[in-house]
């Protein structure tokens, strides 16, 4: 199932970010798995998987990711589809930028942070890696609470997993570990463990991954 769209809305100080479950699934790692499978000879002509990936891309207007997928998998770009998605992306991003400007000039630092996070969540969902990381950094600079800082870094790690950027994962795992030493709840500690375990699986360190997964069972509360 494709991830639920995160739509831009006018920011009000009492509004919260997107549903926590949606944020935790953003970006959708199932799409990265589909892309990886389609890169393998045994799945390269699997029309069902191709249709599933394309459906998620078009449903969520993932223009930046569509360009990357077409380049990496050597698919022919549908110029009309790409243009339509890019136009919708531009319109949505203009709305987010308006929210950010209003929040920065008229609301609190917390509201400004949330406005940046709303934009980052959208950029993450459409698969714009560099813009997502840049916007997350802007949100981080306006974040005070330790837990929210860690959530920001965990999002960066998910971006790294989605794009198989090992350096991005390693950097943010290290930053997360440093923040955890300042004191954090079990939710954040377990999320860190899951990120580290997934990284261990990525580099085929199955022994470490297994040990981490097992160690988190007794206090596991995050997905």
UniProtKB/TrEMBL annotation:
It comes from Anoplophora glabripennis. This is 26S proteasome non-ATPase regulatory subunit 6. Keywords: Proteasome. GO terms for cellular component: proteasome regulatory particle. Residues 79-220 form the 26S proteasome regulatory subunit Rpn7 N-terminal domain. Gene3D superfamilies: 1.25.40.570. Pfam families: RPN7. GO terms for biological process: proteasome-mediated ubiquitin-dependent protein catabolic process.
């Amino acid at each position: 199932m494709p991830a639920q769209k995160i739509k831009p809305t006018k920011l009000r100080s009492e509004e919260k970010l997107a549903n926590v479950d949606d944020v935790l699934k953003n970006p959708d790692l199932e799409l990265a798995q589909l892309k990886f499978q389609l890169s393998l000879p045994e799945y390269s002509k699997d029309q069902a998987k191709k249709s599933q990936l394309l459906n998620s891309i078009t449903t969520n207007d993932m223009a930046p990711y569509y360009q990357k997928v077409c380049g990496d998998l050597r698919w022919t770009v549908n110029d009309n589809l790409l243009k339509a998605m890019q136009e919708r992306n531009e319109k949505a991003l203009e709305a987010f930028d308006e929210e950010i400007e209003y929040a920065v000039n008229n609301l609190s630092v917390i509201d400004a942070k949330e406005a940046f996070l709303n934009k980052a969540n959208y950029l993450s969902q459409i698969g714009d890696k560099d813009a997502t990381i840049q916007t997350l950094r802007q949100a981080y600079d306006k974040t005070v609470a330790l837990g929210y800082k860690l959530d920001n870094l965990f999002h960066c790690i998910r971006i790294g997993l989605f794009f198989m950027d090992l350096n991005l994962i390693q950097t943010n795992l290290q930053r997360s570990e440093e923040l955890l030493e300042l004191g954090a709840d079990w939710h954040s500690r377990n999320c860190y463990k899951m990120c580290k375990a997934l990284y261990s699986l990525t580099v085929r360190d199955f022994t470490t991954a297994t040990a981490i997964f097992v160690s988190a069972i007794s206090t596991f509360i995050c997905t």
